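Changelog excerpt

This revision adds worked examples to the README so contributors can see how folded entries look when concatenated. The first example is reproduced verbatim below.
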Amino acid sequence: MQSQVFRLSILLAAIIFLFVPAQAAEIVKLGALFSVTGPPSFLGEPERNTAQMMVEKINKGGGVKGKKLELIVYDTQGDPTKANQAADRLIKEDKVVAIMGPSTTGETMAVIPLVEKAQIPLVSCAAGIKITEPVKKWVFKTAQNDSLAVEKIFQHLKEKKINKVAILTVSDGFGSSGREQLKIHAPKYGIQIVSDDTFGPKDTDMTAQLTKVKGTQAQAIICWGTNPGPAVVARNVKQLNLNIPLYMSHGVSSKKFIELAGEAAEGIILPSGKVLVADLLPDKDPQKRHLLSFVQEYKARFKTEGDHFGGHAWDAVMLIKNAMENSGFTPAAIRDGLEKTKNFSGIGGIFSFSPEDHAGLTVDAFVLVQVRNGTWALVK
């Protein structure tokens, strides 16, 4: 009897020994770098939440071709150095097959050399055009290019016959890229920049810069930055009675901006992904189903509506999933699958990547929205 028990124990041990590695091989590790805390937490927190929500949903549905996903998230706090260190850890210690994020342009630019050297696909959630222009073999992005946002604003200014503007941009990677694109595209739309000033990411008063605008012929102000600076600008514009239109960048397209700016947000116009006004879109819009589903799922879980920034992570997860389904699970296969992606309906727009385009979106990814009665409305 004892010998039978012993033989059975050996057999069970052998089965377990064979089974565990097979199970482990079914796990696919994905990395994520998000600014969950720190100044850009309004970007990173919804991105982290959304990525976790979508990975759990995919796993509950059976995974990707039977393989379960494991999401490893590191909080960068909006710091390029921390982002670089975390990316190195994801690559060398965690052995991920792809990385989502970081949340900001500066952080993304810091980690690009690492992922390029390691040959690990990166799907950034930041907007700076330099992330993917020129094209880097292993780098893609889901946030709409700032150049597209600039063109959306300039198209509206041209329709309104406004040709003299003041620009006020934050002195970080996102602001510098936006400022560059504003200056590049202005001549094409017949727009003259009559005032060009900056503010620091932690500045709490911009009245000095805005007072200068009063002495110019500016017919509108364009502020380019991420919270909280633009909300300060909005309040200062109201305090100074600058009665000209104020435009913001897509860097503030969430309800958080309205909360921070308060009554001063009223009337402000900015380009945004469609998610902020999903319920106002026509039923024929190819994104509407995904948008409404995302907003509702996020609200059910986190008690607040899914926004433009969480949408960047939704797109990153689903684009990688799509690439794995079509091309395979190795870093090289995922990279190739991403580059072959066509007409993918996401939260940020309809993505079509190519060897020449790793951003994948057109100006149609944006709609113009305006703050009316304390909420977002479509500008038609």
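The second example, added in the same revision:
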Amino acid sequence: MSDNTLIIVLVSILGGALRVSTPFMFVALGECLTEKSGRVNLGLEGTLVLGAMSAYATSYHTGSPWAGVLAAGCAGALLGSIHGYVCKLPRVNDVAIGIAMMLFGTGIAFFFGKAYIQPTAPRLPSIPLGDWTGSPQLATALQINPLLIVGIIVAVIMAWGFANTKWGLIVRMSGDSAPSAKAMGVSVDLVRFVATTAGGFLAGIGGAFLSLYYPGSWNQGLSSGQGLMAVALVIFARWNPIRCVVAALLFGATGAIGPALQSVGVTQGYYFFNAAPYILTLFIMIASAGSKNASRDVPGELSITK
């Protein structure tokens, strides 16, 4: 592989990382917030799909992709609130409800989304950051969506809030020790309900990115399991919002390997490279199972730890 070809591949991976990482980032941040409060939400795959459909339909009818983003967040918040309410009932398992909500969300999206497979909706704009380079390839790779910047800002605010604010302390306390939180007069059920709803809102916005920017259309195979992979990403990031951003970029880069190689004519093993994000997910789950750091940082009230 020549130096020029290597540069093209690296630039393509960089561009792919910036594009593909955004939905991972939002879903991971939403799940990070939810799990910090002591609740697991495995239904975010359904939230992602329903958010994508809601965003596309709203953008198509209103002509405003930003209205679609808001609609996607509201759809995600609705599913999150349902999950949060049901999980506070006696003898209810978070994981089982999450799977049920995943099936419910995808089913609703597929049912109402059939009418929007063919129509074209207005898409989200790009921010050109690479025009100054004079290289068309770098200019294309460095075209980012405003949602990427929003996701990074949300991660910084979340990290700061967990460490320095009263609400951050309450969320962490509810996730680490419910009896301690209750002794301080905190309504643990309310904290987890709000955290799950807010987490669903963020995951829904991740779906809006899929349908309104990249790949920029609505179809029933849009998410490709990204909502479930984001749960592994949170474990890999050890429930740290900033690390969630870094891990999302890593996932995005692995997802861009296949298309990057194809762009320079490398077709052998293409499907193997396309499976890189799923292989990475499997590796992360295996590595995290015996990780002392993950065991130390995991919120104590999560149902997966009991």
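Reviewer comment on example two: The chain has 15 helices and two strands. The two ends are 50 Å apart (CA to CA).
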